[in-house]
Design brief:
By secondary structure, this protein is an alpha/beta fold. The protein has 2 domains: about 190 residues, 3-Layer(aba) Sandwich (Rossmann fold), CATH 3.40.50.2000; about 170 residues, 3-Layer(aba) Sandwich (Rossmann fold). Helices cover about 40% and strands about 15% of the residues. The strands form 2 sheets. A 7-stranded parallel beta sheet has the order 3-2-1-4-5-6-7, with helices on both faces. Strands 10-9-8-11-12-13 form a 6-stranded parallel beta sheet, sandwiched between helices. Helix 1 packs across helix 14 and helix 7 crosses helix 12. The N and C termini lie close together (about 5 Å).
Length: about 375
């Protein structure tokens, strides 16, 4: 493939509002620009991304909607399907050498036929339709339908780019050619996190940093704070479950938990620096995913407690100074924190974690290897 290509990178989300999407896509943009390609980024941002807007080979096509998303499952699915179809249809009048369509939005995949005949790379961050519950008839039937739509859509792909073994196995079973681009941290994030000072002596601080959503079920974190009043808890981030978490804290009259909301990067670094323990969780329905935030945690040289199974558990087993607990288990979380207290005075050597991240999980390095493979 000629390296001075026209590349189109597509998401229906906002990079400004979704930092995980931003972290995923910016290395694509940067690497292709470094190779002399023309890059068009399509997203729902209102303003252009500052980092690239001075580059004459970068175009940011911003597709936004003023409509309010419906709340009901079926209405919202139909709305997002139509919006994704309109977005992809709007790209048909342009000629790009390669289209990188990134999901977790399954509806971009289901409308991929709008670009039929083009070279399409599906960048997979989550196989979201597989997370739908089998317990409710609506979501059970939707999962059946979405699996069928996905299978049909796979026929229009040149290949899929996946983040982990669970996703690789899934697409290989469907006969899709697969490449890997693991999640991780940017080189600058790595340098910033690796420069954090050792936590000063004082009260134990347990911090969660990331999205406050259904998959994380931070009510478990709140319950642990209630049980351990002499330990400080902190939630850094925002999401659809914030109001429920705030109400839970108010109902229990918990004084030892802080909700900071969304912080800039320097604010996040400060929270990392004064934490003893970093906590994360994904409930069992999402066990095939690896929270990208864990890679930041592993750079920060702090003890990690993770509630989850399968994919993330497999990756964490390659690192030191973390403990795996059952998801949605308050007693396990409480016990893990108490056990850490007995180890707190002991010096911890995090060199293995830091070296492992640098070798295998720097985004710029991984996306460079990926593009070399796509060019071959």
């Amino acid at each position: 493939m000629n390296r001075k290509n026209k590349i189109c990178i597509v998401t229906n989300l906002s990079l400004r509002n979704e930092p995980t999407v931003k972290n995923r896509l910016e290395p694509y943009v940067s690497e292709y620009l470094n190779r002399g390609s023309e890059v068009t980024l399509v997203s729902s941002d209102i303003e252009s991304i500052e980092r690239f807007k001075e580059n004459e080979r970068f175009t940011h096509k911003r597709v936004t909607t003023k409509k309010i998303r419906p709340k009901s499952f079926i209405s919202r699915a139909l709305f997002e399907y139509k919006e994704a179809k309109k977005l992809l249809r709007s790209l048909r009048r342009y000629e790009f050498d390669i289209y990188i369509i990134t999901i977790p939005s399954m509806f971009l995949l289901f409308n991929i036929n709008q670009l039929k005949g083009r070279r399409i790379v599906l960048d997979v961050r989550d196989i979201t339709w597989e997370y739908l519950s089998d317990k409710k008839i609506t979501s059970f039937l939707a999962k059946k339908l979405f699996r069928l739509l996905a299978k049909i859509s796979f026929n229009n792909l040149s290949c899929a780019v996946v983040t982990n073994k669970t996703e690789r196995d899934y697409f290989e079973r469907e006969g899709v050619k697969v490449f890997s681009y693991t999640n991780g941290v940017s080189l600058q994030q790595f340098k910033d996190l690796n420069s954090l000072k050792v936590k000063r002596a004082g009260e134990t601080v347990v911090t969660y940093i990331g999205k406050v959503g259904v998959a994380q079920n931070l009510s478990i974190f709140v319950e642990a704070a209630k049980k351990l009043p002499n330990i400080n808890f902190r939630i850094v981030g925002y999401g659809p479950e914030v109001t429920r978490i705030e109400n839970l804290i108010t109902r229990y009259k918990i004084r030892n938990i802080e909700l900071t909301g969304t912080l800039d990067w320097q604010g996040v670094l400060s929270c990392y620096e004064d934490s003893d323990i970093l906590y994360a969780q994904l409930i069992k329905d999402f066990s095939g995913a690896m929270p990208s935030k864990l890679y930041q945690y592993l750079c920060a040289k702090r003890f990690i407690i993770y509630g989850g199974e399968k994919q993330a558990a497999s990756i964490l087993s390659k690192f030191d100074h973390n403990t795996l607990i059952e998801p949605d288990n308050v007693e396990d979380l409480e016990m893990a924190i108490v056990e850490y207290q007995s180890l707190k005075s002991k010096a911890q050597d995090y060199d293995n974690n830091v070296n492992n991240i640098y070798k295998n999980y720097i985004r710029e390095n991984n996306v460079s290897r990926l593009i070399n493979a796509l060019d071959a």
